[in-house]
Amino acid sequence: MATCLFTTPCLSLFQWTSPQSLVAVFKCFAAAQCLLSHDSMLDNKGINTFDFIIVGAGSAGCVLANRLSENEDWNVLLLEAGGDPPITSDIPGLQTLLYKSEYDWQYKTVNDGVTSQAIDNGQVTWTKGKLLGGSSSINALVYVTGNDHDYQRWYDAGNKEWSVDEVRRCFKKAESLQNQDMLRDPTISTRYGHNGPQTVNRFNNTYRWYTDKIIKSWSELGFKNTKDLNVENYMGAGILTATASNGVRRSTYKTYLKQAEKRSNLKIIKNALVTKVLIDANFIAYGVEVKEYGLKKTYLATREVILSAGSISSPQILMLSGVGPQEHLETHNVECFVNSPMVGQNLQDHALMPVTIYGDKPGSVTLGEFLKHITDYLLYRKGFLAQSSVVTDAGLFFSTLENASYPNSQSHVTVVNKNFPLVNLNLKGTFGYNDAVLESITDLNQKKNECAGVQ
Ligand SMILES: Cc1cc2nc3c(=O)[nH]c(=O)nc-3n(C[C@H](O)[C@H](O)[C@H](O)COP(=O)(O)OP(=O)(O)OC[C@H]3O[C@@H](n4cnc5c(N)ncnc54)[C@H](O)[C@@H]3O)c2cc1C
Ligand SMILES: *[C@@H]1O[C@H](CO)[C@@H](O)[C@H](O)[C@H]1NC(C)=O
Ligand SMILES: *[C@@H]1O[C@H](CO)[C@@H](O)[C@H](O)[C@H]1NC(C)=O
């Protein structure tokens, strides 16, 4: 194994002072194929009429493709605009390299002249995965199953098949809890599922003493410390669980799609951009139009067309198909087929407010330590590449309202070592700060550790 590692050319290119060469080092992970296995997908099974067509192979689409193709009588087509996840998707510590890359749709908000002015052009970067696994292949890996109140609201809004109990049953069916400490505690282990495809674990945090301190300090401020946030219905502070195990990301591509991809009744087409849902005169969706490598193709569905293209693309595809607010469609010269004013409305996202705090610990990382983290990862899947680079696993869920039983805010913490060579890359990737803001932060980072508490 060691021989294989040191024959890769990247280590000799290494120069401590330049972030670019560090990026080059990380990209050389691809060269270390002998240590990191990565399979590609099977493609093309030759038919174009299916029982189900699923648009988008993200968090939802990969699960749907697996579950629907369990029924051998159904032929299922899964269409995905992106391709295979790169090796960097596997490595939690490298997630920011995926932002603003070909694996990201790279959406941006419009500058309103008021908010987000510390960000380049006042435009918030809306990262969104464009690859198998969708955003689950690039996200911050935090596994949160929500508060009962969230699902009670679904039920109260008339979705009688989605009661709190039913949602909890589904979560458990999906989960496979891996963490030995959590498994040993019956109050925690009974709260999770054990035989599902979605592995759930905690990170082997390099700075556990540090995150423990943060959690304790929340307690001093009056927020309850929990031994598991899921058990406490996500009210309080504690160590977060992750959609990762043994230092490797577990996207829905890995957990659901890979085990189904060889089924003869499931066809997966990558690099296929769905541009329209075909709808007949009786308002029944009967197929989709797709652009594959510049060629227009049509696929037909005898049962259902399912849009699981994410919160931005699903309504976009509906609108491109003539389903949406009439006036808006007409301004884009799309013939309105069904005037449905709410399509594309009511988008909600969590606003993120970074608060940077400076401190003396954990100190700077030397070149030797940095290289050790890299080799530790390649050989043992540990070190800081084995954990998220965006947030530590200290999490706080709380409400700004008095005596509330469910949270309306959450707080995460990012730790940036003193004089950390990737500080620029990480902060730019995560928050998109403009150069002036970045400069002030990197300047201070040469002298101090940073701890960005994010709400
Ligand atoms: C940077 C980032 C960090 C995040 N961190 C966390 C976290 O730590 N914890 C957490 O719980 N959530 C997190 N999230 C949110 C979470 O990842 C998403 O809510 C979830 O993945 C959405 O699932 P989805 O199936 O709706 O869409 P996605 O997973 O985004 O899947 C949509 C898929 O559809 C494809 N697609 C889109 N348009 C088309 C088209 N026209 N034709 C064909 N295919 C198309 C896309 O390429 C994509 O693969 C994060 C998200 C981002 C972007
Ligand atoms: C942490 O490391 C131990 C020992 O190497 C390993 O058994 C365990 O699975 C790891 N846990 C996670 C969450 O990766
Ligand atoms: C919150 O709870 C405390 C203790 O029960 C009570 O005294 C107080 O009035 C409550 N506040 C609100 C806003 O309900």
From TrEMBL:
The keyword Signal applies. This is Glucose-methanol-choline oxidoreductase N-terminal domain-containing protein. Residues 1-19 form the signal peptide. Residues 129-152, 310-324 form the Glucose-methanol-choline oxidoreductase N-terminal domain. Its cofactor is FAD. Belongs to the GMC oxidoreductase family. Keywords: FAD, Flavoprotein, Signal. It comes from the Eukaryota. One of its GO terms (molecular function) is flavin adenine dinucleotide binding. The keyword Protein transport does not apply.
